[in-house]
Amino acid sequence: MDYSQFKTEVSKRRRTAPTRELTKIAYSAPMELISLAEGMPNEETFPFTEISLKLIDGSSFTLEGEELGAALQYIPSQGYPPLLQALRELQRKNHAPPLWESRDIVVVSGGQDGLSKALEAIVGPGDPVLVQDPFYTGTEVVLSPHKAELIPVAQDAFGVDTALLREILKGRRAAGKKMPKIMYINPTGANPTGSVLPLERRKDIYRLACEYNFLILDDDPYHYMYFTDEAPKSFLSLDTEGRVIRLDSFSKILSSGLRLGFITAAAPLVASIEVHMQSSHLHAPTISQVIVYNLLKIWGHDRLMEHFRRIRVFYKKRRDVISALAKKHLHGLADFTIPSGGFFLWIKVRGVKDTWRMVMQRGVTHGVLLVPGAAFMADPSQPCNAIRASFAKASYEDMNSALERFAKMIRAELSTISNNNIENGEV
Ligand SMILES: Cc1ncc(COP(=O)(O)O)c(C=O)c1O
């Protein structure tokens, strides 16, 4: 596939930084090579002599000597080579991607960094982009400064409505409108709705991507956090044409403070993102990459998968608790679908057209903060009756109090709406 058809002019104009390319060469060259080329500081001047970490299962590791030196040093922009190798093995095992030899991986500073760099490689001023609606606010903030034309695709309880997507694409083509080069999708534990897109719909979307020639940006930080019986099959595992840019993040499964994620995509797209990194933060934090590499080495694949299974059990229990509490406190006031993955409960409030005003005006006085649904809509200027509640972190007691207070807040809002209606003679 010719990927230049998808790239922006800015992305095509980016050139590699010679010093960064030399770091790459120095890392892969034989030991005899003496490099005076790079501006690396001397590790002897660093004040750290040892970093020891204990893991949840009692195992531990210590970084010292040469390994500590490497962990404190500049590395090639693509990532810490031993980690890159471990991530390649992980992706092969977990997704068995077709066309594996034509793909590559780049380590980024969290999913958000990957998201913005991937989108900025593809989306230029005014370009149309398909987005699931509602969608992650972090995507909207990347796209809006580019004046991208957001094409919202509504979702039901299972995620993107693929019949609607087909209609939208058909309609645009028939009307001679500019066609989208990319679709943004967050298919598992969608933020904010908590849905998990069924396999048949994933296949439908992939077929449409091939038919209408667009790429799929699969933002999948909750991939291992599904509460369905079957593990979701990734778009990468369906990708027979090299159209999928897959974003993984360690934020939700190892630690968000590590600021690490990785992109798996066709090599020319990965190369564009790597070159962008050369002009921005050079590479994702080495120390984080070395920590994750050691963790993967000590645990191996099976223990890592066991860790993910424990996370699923942990969040599923929280999902069950918040769902029961919402049922108890919001009965008759709001509706929601039990989330199938991720961190969030998406609640639609009855009788309140715009939760933005309600949350902003009453949240602090009622002692509860939630995200108004409009924050996640492709057109945030339109009123939205939903709110997003996270069940990831609050204690069960706090969840209970929060939903109790939320119910009071809704009642107060409904009472104001009703009084206003009476004053305006609408009742
Ligand atoms: C759907 C989605 N994508 C991306 C991110 C970015 O996360 P990070 O940069 O920590 O990987 C988040 C974080 O909440 C998210 O929910």
From TrEMBL:
It comes from the Eukaryota. The keyword Transferase applies. InterPro entries: Aminotransferase_I/II_large (IPR004839), Class-I_PLP-dep_aminotransf (IPR050859), PyrdxlP-dep_Trfase (IPR015424), PyrdxlP-dep_Trfase_major (IPR015421). GO terms for biological process: alpha-amino acid metabolic process. Residues 36-406 form the Aminotransferase class I/classII large domain. Gene3D superfamilies: Type I PLP-dependent aspartate aminotransferase-like (Major domain) (3.40.640.10). Belongs to the class-I pyridoxal-phosphate-dependent aminotransferase family. Homodimer. This is Kynurenine/alpha-aminoadipate aminotransferase, mitochondrial. It comes from Neodiprion lecontei. The lineage of its organism: Eukaryota, Metazoa, Ecdysozoa, Arthropoda, Hexapoda.
